[in-house]
Amino acid sequence: MEFRYLGNSGFKVSEVTFGNWLTHGSQVENDVATQCVRAALDAGISTFDTADVYANTAAETVLGEALKGERRESLEIFTKVFGPTGPKGKNDRGLSRKHIMESINGSLSRLQTDYVDLYQAHRYDFETPLEETMQAFADIVRQGKALYIGVSEWTAEQLREGHALSKELGFQLISNQPQYSMLWRVIEAEVVPASEELGVSQIVWSPMAQGVLSGKYLPGQAAPEGSRATDDKGGAKMIERWMREDVLAGVQELKPIAAEAGLSMPQLAVAWVLQNPNVASAIVGASRPEQIADSVAAAGVKLEAEVLKKIDDAIGALAERDPSLTKSPATREG
Questions:
Q1: What pLDDT, on a 0 to 100 scale, did the predictor assign at position 233?
Q2: Closest to 193 in 3D by CA, of 326, 95, 87, 52
Q3: How far apart are alpha carbons 218 and 100 in whole angstroms?
Q4: pLDDT tens readout for residues 2-56
Q5: Which domains does the chain carry?
Q6: 3-state class of 273 per DSSP?
Q7: pLDDT tens for each residue of 70-85
Q8: Read out DSSP for 67-79?
Q9: Which residues of 106-126 are buried (b: 16+ CB within 10 A; e: fewer)?
Q10: Highest mean pLDDT: which of 94-108, 283-297, 310-324?
Q11: pLDDT (tens digit, 9 = 90+) per residue, 97-147?
Q12: Contacts made by residues 237-241, CB under 8 angstroms, sequence distance 24+
């Protein structure tokens, strides 16, 4: 495993982060989820990402149980706040001071830890003054409940505003967590340049485009039984944008490129996002422990310029690059 600094800080994270969105607490039984976490640790992953909204807090509970007994100082544990939790009442969502201060306490309890290394605003909250949100984060840092603060899916303008306020309030905004893959490149035009200017790193989710870049979905054929595309608990909806014949055909063109580079398709996908110097870590998930080792092998891989060009030639116009697609819901109900 290789490690990178997160933003303009002295804090290092593993190049591959284990995330438990869509799996733990919902799709995967708890004993299998624990096996996945153990496999991640055995593979050298030290960074774990979750959120209170995942499986309505159950994912945090599963992760906390799975990491129990590990040396806390050797781990980097991330969670997030914004989405609706609990009974989903009027104050059970968003980035108000009330919701943030209550949510951090709930997350720490479920994760069985005194602090999280990184606490992230899961989306931008248009209904709460940014000053209120950032002041709450500043207080959480001063209380020692979070060491660093990050955000997720914020635009370049939102990052600049949040970063300026964090400096005024005496803490660091060091990360953004956007979707990023060969097929989804919307952060490249605006978010990445702004982040480089501000000293903010990307921790990217869905580097395999919900599994499409694994190459297992074939054009003209039904999705494999048990795959995400057949999951009616949320997985199928998330992947449907990529289940087009032209996309699936383009992805198949990546197979000889991966083979020539000595990589599996998942390794090529994860290695590709890690070639971006503004990316500190790529989040991978797993529904089976044996899936972990394949992804981890992408850490430290250097893709030559020729390989990157071949990837661009194969994907071509299939990649989404519109920066306006980096956005948060207009309302907390959105």
A1: 62
A2: 326
A3: 43
A4: 999 999 999 999 999 999 876 554 555 678 888 889 999 999 999 999 999 988 8
A5: 3-325 (3.20.20.100)
A6: helix
A7: 999 999 999 999 999 9
A8: HTTS-GGG-EEEE
A9: bbbebbbbebbbbbbbbbbbe
A10: 94-108
A11: 999 999 999 999 999 999 999 999 999 999 999 999 999 999 999 999 999
A12: 238/22, 238/210, 239/209, 239/210, 239/211, 239/212
Percent pLDDT > 70 in the chain is 93
Q: Residue 317 and residue 314: Cα distance in Å, rounded?
A: 9
The answer to whether 119 and 142 have CB atoms below 8 angstroms apart is: no
Residues marked active site are found at 54
Query: Which residue from 210, 227, 281, 286 is spatially nearest to 36, judged by alpha carbons?
Result: 286
Number of H helices, E strands in the chain: 12, 10
Q: What is the pLDDT of residue 304?
A: 95
At how many degrees (to 10) do helices 156-169 and 130-142 cross?
Answer: 50
Q: Which two tokens stand for residue 3?
A: 């490690």
Specify the residue for token string 């919701």.
99
Degrees to nearest 5, angle at CA 78 with 74 and 83 = 165
Enumerate the β-bridge partners of residue 47.
76
Closest by CA to 202, choosing from 17, 66, 1, is 17
Helices 191-198 and 156-169 pack at an angle, to 10 degrees, of 20
